[in-house]
């Protein structure tokens, strides 16, 4: 799939309602929207409905949306739509107090959506970077880094993989450099 910068992708969606561009938008931003909604305290069985509602609102609003990086980050706009969707659902159902008790809806949402947005973006972009680089690594590099991410000690990794500890350090440094570069690339393209 051809990579577009976020602004180019947004422009294509706005001007043509191109289905391929919309599918690419969903592929890139859907996992992020999901974690934002999850962090708003939504019950697990309702998260998917809120994700779909958020995507529908994005689809409706994107043709009129004018992205200006000086006014804020695009992910904040997505986060605000997700928060609006959840708040709207809560308001609608809070009118019926009986239903509120049955659904156990959260009565309030975290006030700082930007802080949640930033935290979840870092997790999202790190996972995406790892998915992008891991297949290009040597097996030892990948296994070392995965073990380190799980909290395994150098001694355990060295014994299990039959490699010296300094090789683990070298692999770790190389993978960290690749991760850093990939995270920077992703931040430029979709961040």
TrEMBL record:
It comes from the Bacteria. One of its GO terms (molecular function) is sigma factor activity. InterPro entries: RNA_pol_sigma-70-like, RNA_pol_sigma-70_dom, RNA_pol_sigma70_r2, RNA_pol_sigma_r2. Gene3D superfamilies: 1.10.1740.10. Residues 26-96 form the RNA polymerase sigma-70 region domain. Keywords: DNA-binding, Sigma factor, Transcription, Transcription regulation. One of its GO terms (biological process) is DNA-templated transcription initiation. This is Probable ECF sigma factor. It comes from Lentisphaera araneosa HTCC2155.
């Amino acid at each position: 799939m051809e990579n577009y910068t976020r602004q180019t992708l947004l422009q294509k969606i706005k001007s043509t309602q191109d289905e391929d561009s919309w599918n690419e938008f969903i592929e890139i931003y859907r996992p992020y929207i999901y974690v934002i909604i999850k962090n708003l305290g939504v019950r697990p069985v309702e998260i998917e409905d809120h994700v779909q509602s958020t995507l529908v609102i994005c689809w409706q609003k994107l043709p009129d949306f004018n992205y200006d990086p000086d006014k804020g980050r695009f992910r904040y706009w997505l986060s605000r739509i997700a928060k609006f969707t959840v708040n709207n659902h809560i308001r609608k159902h809070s009118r019926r107090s009986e239903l509120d008790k049955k659904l156990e809806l959260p009565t309030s949402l975290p006030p700082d959506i930007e802080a949640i947005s930033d935290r979840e973006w870092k997790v999202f972009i790190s996972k995406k970077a790892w998915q992008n680089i891991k297949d290009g690594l040597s097996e030892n590099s990948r296994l070392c880094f995965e073990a380190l991410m799980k909290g395994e000690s150098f001694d355990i990794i060295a014994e299990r993989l039959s490699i010296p500890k300094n090789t683990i350090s070298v692999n770790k440094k190389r993978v960290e450099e690749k991760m850093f570069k990939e995270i920077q690339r992703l931040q430029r393209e979709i961040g």
